[in-house]
């Protein structure tokens, strides 16, 4: 069976960019058991409410939901177990320093297959306040209106 090339997205956390200001993005591997990989190949994962912590110099992903594998037996995995993320020591030490300094958190943005291996895109993020979210929505709406008006003028309708 040939290895798949490129980036094949399994799940993405669409609310993360709305609820958090993304400061930096990292890629991490993830330690999984066999039935989890089979479930991921079927696309049965959810990053909603997932977050990462650093405990004793190791990065852990909590509340990631990977559905049970349908054809699994007693070897099936628990659905919301804590999973270890694989990162270089320098990256982990860098993250520890940044998280300790500010009011920051680690949020998974997406999960994907990269050359046959499961990877998680982690973001170092700061939570947004309600007024920040409203400002972002207003900016997007204004930008959409500008683009719509430019489109009308190009077509000769405005």
What separation lies between the terminal Cα atoms? 56 Å
- In which order are the strands of the major sheet placed? 1-8-9-2-7-5-4
- Structural class label: alpha+beta
Q: Sketch the topology as an H/E string, one letter per element.
A: EHEHEEEEEHEEH
Content of β-strand? 35-45%
How many structural domains does the protein architecture include?
2
Give a quick summary of the entry.
This is SsrA-binding protein. This protein is 32% helix and 35% strand.
Give a structural overview.
32% of the residues lie in helices and 35% in strands. The chain has 2 domains: 7-127, Beta Barrel (Small Protein B, Chain: A), CATH 2.40.280; 129-158. The protein is of the alpha+beta class and 158 residues long. The strands form 2 sheets. Strands 1-8-9-2-7-5-4 form a 7-stranded antiparallel beta sheet. A two-stranded antiparallel sheet has the order 3-6. It is globular, with a radius of gyration of 19 Å. The protein has helices at residues 16-19, 34-41, 89-101, 130-155; strands spanning 7-12, 20-30, 45-46, 51-55, 58-62, 65-66, 83-86, 105-114, 117-127. It has 4 helices and 9 strands; from the N terminus they run βαβαβββββαββα.
């Amino acid at each position: 069976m040939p290895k798949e090339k490129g980036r094949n997205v399994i799940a993405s956390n669409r609310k993360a960019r709305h609820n958090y200001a993304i400061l930096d993005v990292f890629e991490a591997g993830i330690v999984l058991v066999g039935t989890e990989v089979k479930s991921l190949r079927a696309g049965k994962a959810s990053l909603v409410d997932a977050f990462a912590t650093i405990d004793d110099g190791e990065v852990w992903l909590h509340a990631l939901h990977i559905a049970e594998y349908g054809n699994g037996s007693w070897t099936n995995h628990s659905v919301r177990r804590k999973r270890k993320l694989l990162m270089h020591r320098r990256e982990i030490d860098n993250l520890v320093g940044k998280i300790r300094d500010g009011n920051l958190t680690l949020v998974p943005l997406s999960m994907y297959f990269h050359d046959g291996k499961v990877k998680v895109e982690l973001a170092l993020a700061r939570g947004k306040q309600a007024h920040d979210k409203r400002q972002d929505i207003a900016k997007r709406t204004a930008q959409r209106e500008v683009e719509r008006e430019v489109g009308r003028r190009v077509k000769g309708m405005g």
